[in-house]
Fold each of these.
Amino acid sequence: MKKITVATDWLDGCSGCHMSFLDMDEKLVELIKLGVELTATPITDLKEPPEEGVDIGILEGAISTNHHIEVAKKMRERCKILIAIGDCAVFGGIVTMRNYFSVENLLKRGYIETESTVDGKIPTSPEIGKHIRLAKAVNGIVRVDYYIPGCPPRAEAIYYTLKELVEGRKPVLTGELLRYD
Amino acid sequence: MALVNIKINGQPLQVEEGKTVLEAATEAGIDIPVLCHHPKLPPIGACRMCVVETRPGVLQTACTLPVSEGLDVQTESPTVVKARRFVLNLLFSERNHYCMYCEVSGDCELQSLGYRYGLDHFDLPAYTTRFPVDTSHPYILLEHNRCILCRRCVRACSELAGHNVLGISQRGISSMLTADMNVPLGDSSCVSCGLCVQVCPTGALSDKKGAYVGTNKECEAVKSICTNCSVGCGIEVYKKDNHLVRIWGDWEAPINNGVLCKLGRYEPVFEDKERVTKPMIKRNGSLEEAGWKEVIDIVREMLSKNGVVGFASSSLSNEVLLLFSRLLNNNVTIMEDISNPFDNSGKLSDILGSDKILLVGIDLDKNFGVVGSFVKRAVFNGSELILVDSALNSFTRYARLHYETKDIDKAVGNALMGSNPVVIYGQLDSKLTESLARIKGKARFIWLAPSANSLGARRLGLNGKFEPREVGYILAPYIERLPEGLSKIIVQTSYYSEEIEKADIVLPSAIWLEEDGTFINLEGKEQKRAKVLNPPDSVKANREIISMLLGE
């Protein structure tokens, strides 16, 4: 049986979309039986999509830092089909609420001014991504082939999309599968 | 009316001349999506959602396009669908339309159109300007970030409710929904009728309380009537798990056509008076909780020994008033003054057709708000308001003439010059009655009775001819003042008040949302009120309590 390799990663998100991915439950087993192979994902704890590339890449979360841009671009380079899952990856979502504030004020509020913080400090480690001015949807940085909105996206919608792709059809979300909340 | 032949999606139709394509389609069961349009509001063709193809490549808005002979339209052709998706993309790209943290998600018309046209992402970058959130109003939340500038609220506020508070300031991308001359909604001339919230297709205008309790889709809707004043407006009550979520005006109700006032829409939802939840008996000078059986036995004994005189509020249904009267052998009087020296000949719609409105002694922004809406609309259509009130009155600014009460004769004299005058009045003294009698043959009279069923109480003949007795039985949802000169007091009520501390027996009764019944509205028509909620444990419907006492 031909393997269909899948890699996933998360950007500025809450991991809720990956919870939905796991919420496929026995349907995930069904997909694996159909040939789906999970390569690098936060679930398998492998950090980067394999160099030889995958068939399907899945991204959760908005683009918020230079780090996210890098991850998104790498995923795009290494996958044939890119799916954005969840409202943050699809629309920008709740993450874009911070666009109303400057990055400087955002960090100050988060790390220094929060009511419970004593002697706060804005982290400066070079390993941490630097915020870009405006958080945006994944398609603001790279081309996206399919979208599964929802906060979180319904497990059934993720299953439906993967199943259609595995079986060589183009998924179109309708009815209960297309939800923005 | 002449008929014209048109085709919608190839289907031949005969439609009355003067109708719009949208109306013709709706009648034929063809669904054309709308956003800025609302069937109760005049069309403006602003949002372009309802575009239809009249000739290949030619799009026109169905809500404003009148039918004409030979018209052939397509409502879901590829060109139409493409245009609608484009419109949706534009709407979603302006302001903040992220559903996941919107209270209206599920009820939102913009969202459901996004689903209908399969928008699974935005083609255009999202707009990042931050708009204000106006929380200044006690009942209404105005979230400008969710506004799509469809102007439904503006039209509802002016054309239907007559208040003219809302408008649009600026132009183009800077357009903003504005109250009065750009003041916070809470500081504006808004009278909290809430119709703007009812027509808003998105989460821009929502109820401060109800929006956080449940969407309409999650609630059960029950049609009923409001019995918080004597107008008798049709309402649609949304409830969830025996909780009141929101009250909307019933679009189909002939008397109010969807319009409500603060008293009907918001006060019941925000009601915070403490309920009486247990029967109580006075022991050692203070009220103590007791069981139903015990209090019913005591009251029955009191009823059998002494003659008892009853006092009832005319906010109660015909059924309750009738039973109460039977229980007390017709020794029942109504607590409010329900005398009316004139024939109640007018209907609210007569106000719209009048050329002069004589308004005597009532502030319609404070009470009878829906009547106020009719008067404001009539004034904007050219009718002259003649106000008679010695006190400050919110309608002064709408009045052509404002007289002191002592100058009633001058006011009547002016009204007599009209060809179609309407008199709106409440309680009258003999001087006012005498003056108004002069216009009796000419004007239509609209009596704003003090309570929801004052007309019903009058029909039942409960006009207070009784023998004074020692024991009084008072039946009212809320008791502001108990009658004087009683040595023993039985109270049947819904809310605590200081006065009920004086009672010897307290029977906890259901509120208006918890008991059905029939009521005579302002136009003399009998209407049925539905039971929407179950009363709390140990609280019984008025009818049930009296039936128990009657041994039925």
Amino acid sequence: MCAAKAKSFPSPYDHKAPAGSEGWQALYPYNLVFQDGLRAKEDEKFWFCDSQHWPNVFKPFETIAVEFASRNLGAYNTRHYIVPPANGIDYRIHNGYNYFSPVAVAPELIAARVPHFLERAGYYFQNWGTLLENWRTKVLANIAEMDALTFEPLPDMVPMETITEGVGMDPSVTLFENYDRLIQLAYRNWEHHFEFLNLGYVAYLDLFGFCKEAFPGIPDLAIAKMVSGVDSVLFRPDDELKKLATLAVELGLTDVFAAGKDAAGTLAALADKPKGAEWIAAWEAAQDPWFNYTSGNGFYGHDVYWRDSLDLPMGYIQDYVERVNKGETLGRPKDELLVERDRIANEYAEALSPEAVETFQGKLGLARAVYPYVEDHNFYIEHWTMGVFWRKVRQLSNLLHEAGFWEHPNDILYLSRDEVRPVLFDYASAWAVGTDPIGPTYWPKEIARRTAIIDALEEARPQPAFNAPPAQISEPFTIMLWGITTEQVSQWLGSDDDDPNTLSGMAASGGVVEGLARVITSPSQLGELEQGEILVAPVTAPSWGPVFGKIAATVTDIGGMMSHAAIVCREYGVPAVTGTGKASTVIKTGMKLRVDGTQGKVTILS
Amino acid sequence: MSNQKYTFAFDSTDAATHDRLGGKCASLAIMTSAGMPVPPGFAITTDAFERTMYQTTLREHIARVLDGLDMNDTADVDARAAHCRELILTQEVPEEVRDEVLLAYRALMERCGGEVAVAVRSSATAEDLPDASFAGQQDTYLWIVGERATLQAVRECWASLYTARAITYRAANNISDEGLSMAVAIQKMVNSRSSGVAMTVDPSNGDRSKIVVESSWGLGEMVVSGEVTPDNFLLDKVMMSVVTAVISDKHEELVPTGRGTIVRREVEPERRVAPSISDAELMAVARLAKAAEKHYGTPQDVEWAIDADLPDGANVLLLQSRPETIWSQKEANVTFVSPGSGIEAITKSMLAGLNLS
């Protein structure tokens, strides 16, 4: 092989913003944009676009998720467990998209971190079960407290009890405090998000490294399959819908669902049926917590959660009822998955010497013990916590919309979270003074200006990376979470002998299929997917669950073996190639594709 | 192919009993059912032999010829043995036996897409013959074409029970001719479009989770002798996926003519650099190699071929499987950076700077 030409991605400083988006930097916190004064330092670093988690341009309020997530990922590596070779992952927003740069620990500092890591991470591994139970308690308490927060319009007069009980404060106090508390509680659960996750990965990587030594060339997919669980809570919402569909058929209610009405219409029709009440009771029981489930990934204010949009789960149920009626048995093949998982582990064990088997079984056992968290946390934080969070944000936004601050109910998303506090004060102050707030004059124009900028940014797909990649990418989290490997990056840079009709990525979920592509760049397009098509997307979310029953394969731009798309595809037995870098821009809807999820190859056939 | 009294298809799901099939045929049937597809064919059972011997005058006739034989008179033994064989070779096969054998033969031809050459081999029930072994280098008639020639070769096999050596052997070991029997294997001659070897351990490092497949055009001799650089594939044995694939320039091939001779010829330019095996065929080779390892309980070194006459999906054949001898005796020489498990092991592997890609 000849030496690769020195290639580099552009500098973010030379990467211009699309026309009409000038001044976008001011929409985001100063510390999240590439500052002119820091060019030399920032250009030293390699930045990759995390379109896996943030496929769309941020509205100002939405930076909260990347800030809380990235800060806390870093905190656990850097300050809690003192992970010897890795600090956190630095983050920037450029032209509206999110970029990450892993921060390695200087080689001479690594040794001193080891004893701390052994003591701290060791404690968590030893006490995994009790600490995890404690985690659940903390996380659920925060969700419950968040759920209880309310945002009410200020009344014409304070209630009489404020007088009689000598409260001496008006409801603006609660309004301010509830907003602050909402942000605080979200922050707390993002802290907890990473309490176990990083440790789950290092245990996994220990097994991973061993397997790569013992079985050179072992597919990453094989290792993932050996540890993955089959009853993660992440799949429970979809399982609940399947149960409801099965119940509908059992109760003889098929006709009601066949009518294809919206949720309200279906429920009204059910009320007239003798056994309808029984079904409705089951439907309501399933909602808390399982309908705290987004069709996005929890990071955007436009994410639609089932609880807030019952037509969505009802539509899935209608599809499932039809399938049950056709005699199909719904549900993931849990028993088969377990048998397959054990077959794979046993066959690899058989290929080892007795001493090596002991090491293998030890590492596999630990990886399996900690792995469920890697899947489960996603439901508790991204779905449940963030579902409640965004609902509360929308309630507050709507209150201010009705008070005349902005034109659309969700326009609060065009403000940063720190700009909301003065708006609340404006609202409460004018209410107190007995005059009109200033915001209704200021914000509609400003929001229109910001909307135009965001829309202009949305016109361009993100640049996959900035600056020169390091010779070797070895930071484990970067590889496992984002599928960013040395090979992957050079693929993105593109070599001259590349076959333009072949894309390579991670062999995330095995199998080979051919079919027609459907490119989906936002969850709202999911309805366009037809049975047997190949889903091509910048990224997928696990909550797209119900569509995995009808697609033939999945191809994504970004994502590693542990990405949500990879996990869900393995669960559903759908071939997947993740981390192709550019599938969603190269492939067009209607193209015929061959997806080889075992080899990580996508071929455009026509 | 359905099984009847006088024939038994190798891919039958019925129990392959040694009594009816003899060692060779029983082994072929067992291999087929264990996922090791040998070249297709069928057994002519011991019932067919017995029917021919006992329901004609043949058995009495032979007994009379051998009556009072002096084993020390080698010239007489030779003469009488030849007489016995002549009797068998000229004996008309009873109609019901012949009909059934021809039915099975025609079914085999149909499966092979037309008339092809077969191999006809004796399949003894163990103790009747001096060299009886399951590997079965007994009487073998290759490149037999046509019904008449096939039936004749079957009689030749039967007649081999009465070589002078066989008769002497039985006498010396007090084995009575009573119950003497033989089955015969009729098996397609392989018409190798491509062939090669497979090993169920990576010979470069002893990794037993791999299968190495080498493949080239035509017969496998050139792969084995190293006269051609074959296509080389490394597969993961557990996941059955390709880890690496190297397609080589395969300049020459040996091709069977179908009449027992072989031609050596140059491979035309576009085929030289094309893969000599399709993805599906490669998987079939890997599957049969894995099945052989499982069946014999130790890493195997396998010879295989892809038959040009057989339809896709049924064209990958196992020719021979023997134990791999180098790595089976020792363990893979891997030193793990982080033996054991738990936090210490995690730390050690983290610091070793995993080569994760």
